[in-house]
Design goal:
The complex is a heterodimer of chains A (281) and B (303). Chain A has 281 residues and is mainly alpha-helical. Chain A is built from 15 helices and no strands. In chain A, helix 3 crosses helix 14. The chains are: A mainly alpha (281), B mainly alpha (303).
């Protein structure tokens, strides 16, 4: 009797894990194809993808060196890193400062401003991209780092995120600093900033992902390899015929690896951050 | 809000005001320059003949750009693609996401590894996922081979060059990429359901299906509405996948509002016309957001 039950339990476990593993394969196999393909010769990537050879390179080719040599991929990576790094760094300060002021510093028109920020959350960047293209063209700042950074620093969503987070902190902290005679700016730096690390992590993760993966805006405002980000470079190389699958997979790995590594290290923060947004669809 | 108002003491004088201006000015300047002005400009430009570079003088054309957009077959093809995406992808994603959430909510050893794996594509860059799936969907590629193996014959279709299959291919790839997002939110919803509800129902003799219908589903109802809303809104932002996988082709089969907008505004440099598309796009997004607010909770209440 008890042996039958335990055998049934083991059977149930096998079914459960089996199902979990099959579903896991659906998510992992494409990524494996990408990693293995990045060291295969161009023609093997597609022809070998229909057999178990998809997961093992029969011949090794260094597509990374190839992508760096022919597409200046190193430059593209540096460009993306500069743009995304600037957006994250400047955005953290600008948005948290605004959120702090909205939450804790009394000033005229604060409620109105808060209302405007909340209303602006609904406006997607895509809705303003075309007029913005006209503006930056007239200002002659297209094809620069600046044009890729400036529009994405201030974000109503992140301002509101910081605002909500600050409201959750005990009021006494900020009142005490006011009695001390510390200026609001000093209170922001010495008291507020150290307390909002989780909110900073969320905004940093989300704005990095959005900036690093951004495609629509850089397609319109970058022309030269000097400022072009990896996403535009990848989509250009992907358009060449015959398709250089090896190079494409190598570029894909190089674009994904930094995010995947950071994700695997800071998983809980990552998942919490993305769950708090509607990042992609 | 209330606690913030409470700090507004009469004594807080000019010093605070100056500090506040210093703190808030950068955000205000940037939001005005890169969001508010362009937004108002979109409405204004949509009524003009504005081009990106043009020797011709600017003309006020009234609603001509809207009339032209609404009589353009490419616009209707784009809109109908976005709408069918919004009908198919969020629903499928949410159903599959709930299934995955139930799977990874089992009290099994190592279950967090599976959660991580199912979530992996969500953090990937869309352009990368798109080139990857171009490889999988290629003729002689893995997906055709897989279908052939299951069906027990050889299967060969050209997914991304077949007008009937290209957009479904974009949908399949998008579902794969983002289903982990739905899963994580629904998992949080599942875990918020009190365990004693299940206990009590089991004591009353409820079976698994009844538990699911009368406890699980009502328990995650708000989360379901929330994730559906988000993915319906993002359905109208669809750009990266068709841009990289198909370029909107074949024969406009994967055209979307955002592809059309960049085509008209950037490639053809017709800013006025593209602004009209942007305004129509914004009205749609706003409409979806307002409708969904009537049905369910907002973000803050969902979890």
């Amino acid at each position: 009797m008890s042996r039958g039950r335990s055998r049934r339990r083991v059977g149930g476990l096998v079914v459960r894990y089996g199902l979990l593993l099959i579903v896991a394969a659906v998510f992992v196999v494409p990524l494996l194809v990408m990693f293995v393909g990045s060291v295969k010769p161009d023609r093997d990537v597609l022809t070998e993808s229909t057999s178990l050879k998809a997961f093992w390179p029969t011949q090794i080719e260094n597509n990374y060196a190839d992508a760096i040599a022919t597409s200046q991929f190193g430059r593209l990576l540096a460009n993306s890193l500069i743009v995304s790094g600037s957006v994250v760094l400047l955005g953290t300060f600008v948005n948290s400062m605004a959120g702090y002021a909205l939450a804790w510093v009394p000033f005229k028109g604060r409620r109105l401003l808060l209302g405007v920020v909340v209303a602006l959350v609904i406006v997607p960047f895509q809705a303003v991209a075309i007029p913005l293209l006209l503006i930056v063209s007239n200002l002659q700042i297209v094809d620069s780092y600046l044009v890729q950074i400036l529009p994405f620093i201030a974000s109503p969503f992140f301002i509101f995120l910081f605002y909500s987070f600050f409201l959750g902190l005990p009021r006494e902290l900020f009142e005490a600093s006011r009695i001390d005679g510390a200026g609001v700016v000093r209170a922001y730096i010495s008291i507020a900033l150290p307390l909002i690390k989780p909110a900073i992590a969320t905004s940093a993760i989300l704005s990095f992902l959005a900036s690093w993966g951004g495609l629509l805006w850089p397609v319109m405002v970058t022309r030269s390899v000097d400022v072009r980000p990896v996403t535009v470079g990848l989509s250009q190389v992907a358009g060449f015929l015959p398709t250089q699958w090896g190079d494409i997979m190598a570029m894909s790995v190089a674009i994904s690896l930094p995010i995947l590594v950071v994700f695997l290290i800071f998983q809980p923060a990552f998942i919490r951050s993305i769950a708090s947004s509607g990042l992609k669809g | 809000m209330t606690s913030a108002e409470a700090t507004q003491t009469p004594g807080a004088g000019r010093q605070s005001n100056e500090g506040a201006i210093f703190l808030i000015a950068p955000a205000v300047v940037l939001l005005v320059a890169f969001l508010i002005i362009p937004f108002l400009l979109a409405i204004g430009l949509s009524l003009t003949s504005q081009r990106l570079v043009s020797p011709l003088p600017l003309r006020f054309v009234g609603l001509e750009n809207y009339a032209r957009t609404l009589s353009d077959p490419a616009f209707w093809q784009a809109l109908s693609n976005n709408v069918s995406f919004a009908l198919v992808v969020p629903t499928t994603q949410t159903v599959l996401g709930l299934g995955l959430a139930l799977m990874v909510n089992q009290p099994l050893r190592g279950i967090t590894i599976f959660r991580t794996i199912y979530f992996l594509p969500v953090v990937m860059v869309l352009a990368v996922v798109s080139v990857l799936w171009r490889l999988l969907f290629a003729q002689g590629g893995m997906i055709n081979a897989g279908i052939g193996a299951v069906a027990g014959g050889s299967f060969e279709v050209n997914w991304l060059h077949d007008p009937a299959l290209a957009f479904p291919a974009v949908m399949i790839m998008s579902i794969w990429q983002n289903v982990g997002f739905q899963m994580i939110l629904l998992l949080a919803g599942l875990q918020a359901i009190p365990a004693d509800l299940y206990e009590a129902a089991r004591v009353d003799g409820a079976n698994g299906r009844q538990l699911f219908r009368h406890i699980t589903l009502p328990g995650v109802r708000n989360t379901l509405i929330f994730v559906m809303t988000i993915s319906v809104v993002t359905s109208f932002l669809l750009f990266d996948q068709p841009y990289v996988m198909t370029g909107g082709g074949p024969a406009g089969a994967t055209q979307t509002l955002m592809l059309l907008m960049t085509q008209v505004g950037f490639v053809e440099q017709r800013i006025g016309q593209a602004s009209a598309i942007a305004v129509i796009f914004f009205v749609i997004v706003l409409g979806v957001a307002l409708i969904s607010r009537r049905f369910g909770p907002r973000m803050s209440e969902a979890n």
